[in-house]
Amino acid sequence: MKIRDKLKRNAGSAASLAEVARALGQARYKVRSEIREGRTSVLGRKRILGIFGSDIVHLGLLVVIAGGILSGLTGTRTDLSLREGETLAVPGAGFEIRLDKFSTELYPDGNVKDWKSALTVLESGRPVAEKTIEVNHPLQHRGYRFYQSSYGWNWDNPSLTVEVRKKSDPAYLKTLKLRVGERAALDDPAGTVVGVARFIPDFVLGEGNAPETRSLQPNNPAALVEGFTGAEKVFSGWIFANFPDMDQMHKTQESDWALKLKSYEAGQFSVVEATRDKGVPLIWLGCILLMAGLGLAFYWPTWEVRAVLEDVQNKTDVTLGGLASKNREAFQAEFEAVAASLRSSK
Fold first, then answer.
1. Same structural domain for residues 164 and 244?
2. Residues 252, 280: one domain?
3. What is the pLDDT of residues 115-142, one digit of tens each?
4. How many structural domains does the chain have?
5. Where is 332: in which H helix or E strand?
């Protein structure tokens, strides 16, 4: 041992053993001794739990791995798309969730700040739990967690605002509120009506120049409008909210009408991720063990003092040795204090 000392006591080994045990006991060491072949060996230890620090670390790692395996074998994840007021059964759970309200919070610059979904858990039609979830703040019920995952718009039947003007009369303006499939009459002696046949939130020409949507985000909203006089279609074409001057009308006869897509509104839906992961408690337990083991290993190291007592002509030679893996300066000061106590008690 690098930390060591040697002293001689004017007493027998029995008295010297008692004095060594006293000095170590005052320093809060756990002491045990053994006599063999005329020599007495003494072992003093403190902070004994530090010995098991590395063992607890390895146990924690094994528990984390076991939790990961259990998660992989039994964990489930399901995305549930809900509109306000809609109720859906959670697969395999035996209960339902209802979306009471969905809201999107924005920063002043228009970027998304937060999504919030007010959820109600229903069992046999009765509400048993309620919570407004948002990112990193899930709802927990019977081993399931419900996270705010995403959101979107219901583009199946949006409300569109179409502005109608007359080329021959710049002062004329009529605003129509239409949904897909609806028609409205124009101020036209011929009885012209206009309707919306289709809406695409992110217009792009796909294979074969067929119109399709590139995404569900309203990046390039477009509406297919049609005009009829009686049963005859007199014009049809796409109008674009982002490009109001783009004229894609196909006309069977001269028309005095100019249409623009001014705005569009659609109900939002919330995407809630329902997860069940039986391995999570094991993973948390493993993490706790791991941190506890590291704490013991680094901040509560075991200190050990050994002594060998030998009778020599009615006196006792005492050889001391000390061992500490951490905080060696503090241990050496304590070791020297124990040795000084033994010297002073001769």
1. yes
2. no
3. 899 999 999 999 999 999 998 899 999 9
4. 3
5. helix 328-344
- pLDDT tens digit string along 99-116? 999 988 888 887 888 889
Q: Among 143, 141, 145, 144, which residue's Cα sits nearest to residue 128?
A: 141
**Is 294 among the domain residues?**
no
Q: In angstroms, what CA-CA distances link 268 with 30, 130, 152, 155, 305?
A: 69, 20, 6, 9, 71
- Domain containing 148 equals 58-155+269-289
Are 61 and 286 in contact by the 8 Å Cβ rule? The answer is yes
The strand pair at 112-123 and 126-134 is best described as antiparallel
* pLDDT of the residue at 1: 81
* 194 and 253 fall within a common domain: yes
Percent of the chain with pLDDT over 70: 97
- For 287-317, give one letter per residue: b (16+ CB within 10 A) or e: eebbebbeebbeebbbbbbbbebeeeeeebb
**193 located within any domain:** yes
Give the distance from CA 235 to its chain's centroid: 53
For residue 46, give both structure tokens: 């403190």
Kindly tell me the burial class for residue 324, based on how many C-beta atoms sit within 10 Å of its own C-beta (0-12, 13-18, 19 or more): buried
Amino acid at 180: V
Domain co-membership, 261 together with 167: yes
pLDDT, tens digit, 9 for 90 and up, residues 67-96: 999 999 988 899 999 988 999 999 989 999
How far is Cα 224 from Cα 214, in angstroms, rounded to an integer?
A: 16
Q: Which two tokens stand for residue 172?
A: 């004329």
Q: What is the pLDDT of residue 104?
A: 84
